[in-house]
Amino acid sequence: MNIPIIADLESSQLRELPDFRVGDTVRVHYKIVEGDKDRIQVFQGVVLKRHRAGARSTFSVRKVSFGVGVERVFLSHSPRIDKVEVVSRGVVRRARLFYLREHQGKAARVRDQKDA
Predict the structure, then answer these.
(1) Cβ(17)–Cβ(75) under 8 Å?
(2) SS3 letters for the chain?
(3) 16-47 pLDDT, tens per residue?
């Protein structure tokens, strides 16, 4: 009964993001609020997974910082995301890249599209 109303609300709130897929290296510009100041923090890494669920869509990004793996989940349509840049396209054959958690160094690389 109220499903079309919910669908209309969701579609009006959605933001346009660049086309990126699992395996791509992305740079996410995220707004951080510290007290009364705002700043933008850049998080660059490989997209491990995407959860496509309309307004509740998310994507996970992983990077290695000072030898420690860091993963972060972003809400795709969050107003705190300033922009998402695609740095490079990756060639993968999986929808979820959780196997990268166990690998280190060169073994944790994702093949670029230009290399394929």
Answers:
(1) no
(2) CCHHHHHHHHHHHCCCCCCCCCCCEEEEEEEEEECCEEEEEEEEEEEEEEECCHHHCEEEEEEEECCEEEEEEEECCCCCEEEEEEEECECCCCCCCHHHHCCCHHHHCCCECCCC
(3) 888 999 999 999 999 999 999 999 999 999 99
The amino acid present at 69, given as its one-letter code, is G
Q: Residue 23 in contact with residue 49, Cβ under 8 Å?
A: no
C-beta separation of 49 from 59 below 8 A: yes
Residues in the chain: 116
pTM for the full predicted model: 0.84
